[in-house]
Amino acid sequence: MVDVIKALGLLSVMRRSHTINKKNSIVFVPGLYGSMGDDIIPGTGKWSFGMAASIYEPFIKKLVEMGYVLEENLFIAFYDWRKECSYSMEKYLKPVIEHAKRKNKSKKVDIICHSMGGLVSRTYVQSKNYNYDVDQMIFIATPHTGAANAYSIWTEGKLLSKKNIESEAFATLMEGYLWILTRLHGYDNDIDTVHNLLKGAKDLLPNRDYGEYIYYFDQEKKLHYIPYEELDYKNSFLDNLNQNKDLLKQRRIRVTLIVGKNIETNEKFQINKSDDNEDSKIVSVIKTSEGDGTVSFRSATAIEGDTYIFHADHTDIMKKCSFAIKSKLGIMEETVNDGSIVDSYTGKEEEHVSILMNGKGKVSIHMQTDEGTKLMYDSTKNVNNVFIQEFSDMLKWIVIHNVGNKQLYLDYEPEENETLDIQAKSSSGRKIKFRQQRPVKGKNYRMKIQ
């Protein structure tokens, strides 16, 4: 991916070098699950977007088409999203900013950040160790007062069902990485994985400014909200960060907010509150159309800045905001006036299938098309829109995009007689689980996964 984008970038510079002369370098900070490498899971190699490539690579290519070049004036601040934002800021973001400044002999950079990446970035510019080296920040779908879904992740180790979350791409990433991490580290369940390995999720919990969002009905059917101070899980990180949010203005950082709207978004949760409060579970949800399916509009606009509004969900917004990015980077011949701009796009996410595998063996995936059977993946070949990551000699994750309603078949031939565990899920909601305690070595197992 990097080499292709660099090549495109060189061509763009030749055609439009005048548009980016004297512009700041860009540091891009992806969101939760948007980084993968040896720092997170040993054996996965150098930093990349991992299984979030389909979300972020097209965005990086758009920046390249605007004339930016990777490792010249465009840098990516990958980070360990399992850790707290303050840790990721200090170990990963600050060094990338320093590298970008040295590379271009410049005093400042521009930061473009998505979702959790915005909180990592704010942690830096609002810290006592800030070096006054950020000119502008472009926040895309950042939960400045937290996101309700983080409560579901932190308290129950899962997202709610498909009917309660609109950003299926985000759900696929979350479920997939939890599945992988749970098996790699030998935890009994996802909640143990979250509390031990995904401490960064706690930084995404709704904070005091979010407002009351957990409620229950008493025996007389009266509704009661639990005050923030009485919640078992509070977000002291965001409480402290937002107490000092005026530092963004005081430090003369230009702020742009790119947010999604008109997508049903979880906003409040009903729990079945018990006397000891230890067995409380989410039983219902209140949604708002003022959000992007993951982050509410109110949370995404909780700090001051020029605001661009799109009818797009939490991940799809990355594909829709190019003109706003161009305007803010000053590379359009005719820039759009600052303010609230609504995109009428009403499309749906591209359909995909996620396949998680735990077992040693030969794998091939075929799609049934009008022209016949098409090989989508095997150990020697994969086609476009197929993303693969191997985490060990046993664990593998395959995501196939743009599958439409085509039939998909998976063939598996075990290399040894040990437990085989396969889980497949399509964005349409179809789930397939296949578990064999002692699969027969050399035998072919076929399953329809779409």
Please describe what this structure looks like.
The protein has 450 residues and is of the alpha/beta class. The chain has three domains: 2-146 and 236-264 and 288-343, Rossmann fold (3-Layer(aba) Sandwich); 148-230, no CATH class; 352-448, Lipoxygenase-1. Helices cover 28% and strands 26% of the residues. The chain is built from twelve helices and 20 strands. Strand 15 and strand 16 form a beta hairpin. Helix 3 (85-104) crosses helix 4 (116-125), helix 5 (148-156) crosses helix 7 (190-197) and helix 6 crosses helix 7. The chain is globular, with a radius of gyration of 23 Å.
- Overall pLDDT score: 86
Instruction: Give the CA-based shape.
Output: globular
Radius of gyration: 23 Å
Helical residues, percent: 25-40%
Quaternary state of this entry equals single chain
Report the portion of residues in β strands: 25-35%
Number of DSSP E strands: 20
Task: Describe the structure concisely.
The protein is of the alpha/beta class.
Keywords:
Rossmann fold; seven-stranded parallel sheet; 450 residues; alpha/beta; globular; 3 domains; Lipoxygenase-1; 26% strand; single chain; 12 helices
List the topology elements.
Elements lengths: L1 H19 L4 E5 L23 H13 L8 E3 L8 H20 L4 E6 L1 H10 L8 E7 L7 H9 L11 H18 L4 H8 L16 E4 L5 E3 L10 H8 L3 H4 L3 E7 L4 E7 L10 E7 L8 H4 L5 E5 L6 H4 L1 H8 L12 E2 L8 E7 L2 E9 L2 E6 L8 E5 L4 E7 L5 E8 L5 E7 L4 E6 L8 E4 L2
Parallel strand pairs: 1-2, 1-3, 3-4, 4-7, 5-8, 7-10, 10-11
Antiparallel strand pairs: 5-6, 8-9, 12-16, 12-18, 13-14, 13-17, 15-16, 17-20, 18-19
Helix pairs in contact: 1-2, 3-4, 5-7, 6-7
